[in-house]
Write a structure and sequence with these properties.
The chain has about 375 residues and is of the alpha/beta class. It is about 45% helix and about 15% strand. The chain has a single domain (about 10-365), classed as TIM Barrel (Alpha-Beta Barrel). Helix 15 crosses helix 16 (about 340-355).
Length: about 375
């Protein structure tokens, strides 16, 4: 098979390319996790503990990966996850991700902490757009939800696991902040990565565009957003009100227990995203792939999306076999974005959907030794 980018054959290869192109401070923001980062390793190790047991001598000459998610048909059981500060990786990174998702026939979720606004992405990309909500300030949250509705986003994602920001030692050591702080070490780091530096100088400082519009002009909202201070009082009654206010599909992200998943569905959520935030909030949380079976047992008719740790097609097969309707791609597509822009994102998605592990299938899973 002819590769779009010679020498790149895996998500791991794209990770290496991203590491070469990005300054250390920026790559560490992409790559890093909370506390001692054991959660990152735990997420991947959990996938490795599950083994595929394929059934042989079945006609698989015609394979269909399309599935129904939230009432819509998508080409593969994939969603590009909401991630923040994507313009730090590639100019107009949010739009590159959204356009790659549209070309692949899968949804794209825009983060509250995006560098392009809700409206800019809606104007610049076709396809199924979702919006992920951080409740930083109640008035700001209402404004963001209203804007997403007016911009024709089909699905709202409430993220629930950032009541307190994760203790990310890499970011603290590097002094990572928005806007970027220019230090002698940071300047030297940028100069030693000329491709990234040129794009940064020609496209300007990434901004949190959703907090820099007339709709979000409240100075208290903007200050809280820039400090990433979330509303830690947001609770189940607030979720009920959000369900009443939002006419489209509603997902709740950050769920790792069957009890919470069941309660989300009872309140009216259309689905649950089983996620530990990619290991970026707490290290000592269940790996989503391990939490998934018990959640699937209590929500058998609900769409479940698995997030955190997907790197190859076999991971998708395992998640779907254990009860997920689809999975979210986060760091995997950001590696592609950081290395090659929109084309890199498309290539990562193509790698995952075209690998034999995602197309040959297996109908049983067992714990590995």
């Amino acid at each position: 098979m002819t590769r779009a980018f010679p020498g790149i054959f895996s998500v791991g290869d794209y990770r290496s390319e991203a590491r070469r192109r990005l300054p250390r401070m920026v790559f560490d923001y992409l790559e890093g996790g909370a506390d001692d980062e054991s959660g990152l390793r735990h997420n991947r190790a959990a996938f490795d503990r599950w083994e595929l047991r394929p059934r042989r001598l079945i006609d698989v000459s015609k394979r269909v990966q399309s599935t129904e998610l939230l009432g819509r048909q998508i080409s593969s059981p994939l969603v590009i996850a909401p991630t923040g500060l994507n313009s730090a990786f590639w100019p107009n990174g949010d739009l590159s991700l959204a356009r790659a998702a549209s070309k692949a026939g899968i949804p794209f979720a825009l983060s509250t902490a995006s560098n392009m606004s809700i409206e800019e992405v809606s104007r610049g990309a076709d396809g199924d757009l979702w919006f992920q909500l951080y409740v930083v300030h109640r008035n700001l949250a209402k404004s963001l939800v209203s804007r997403a509705r007016e911009a024709n986003y089909s699905t709202l994602i409430l993220t629930t696991d950032v009541a307190v920001n994760g203790f990310r030692q890499r970011d603290l050591r590097n002094g990572f902040a928005m806007p970027f702080k220019v230090t002698p070490r940071g300047a030297l780091d940028g100069i030693s990565h000329p491709r990234w530096l040129w794009s940064y100088l020609t496209n300007g400082m990434p901004q949190l565009k959703n907090f820099a519009t007339d709709h979000a002009s409240d100075t208290a909202c903007q200050a809280a957003a820039l400090r990433r201070e979330m509303d830690a009082s947001f609770g189940w009654d607030d979720l009920r009100r959000l369900r009443d206010d939002w006419p489209g599909k509603l997902l709740v992200k950050g769920i790792v227990t069957a009890e919470d998943a069941e309660r989300c569905v009872e309140i009216g959520a259309d689905g649950v995203i089983v996620s530990n935030h990619g290991g970026r909030q707490l290290a000592d949380l269940p790996a989503p792939i391990d939490a998934l079976p018990s959640i699937s047992d209590v929500t058998p008719t609900t769409d479940l999306i698995l997030d955190s740790g997907i790197r190859r097609g076999a991971d998708v097969v395992k998640a779907v076999a254990l009860g997920a309707t689809a999975v979210m791609l986060g760091r995997a597509t950001l590696y592609g974005l950081s290395a090659k822009g929109e084309a890199g994102v498309s290539d990562v998605v193509a790698m995952i959907v075209s690998r034999p592990s995602l197309t040959s299938g297996g109908d049983r899973l067992e714990r590995g030794a």
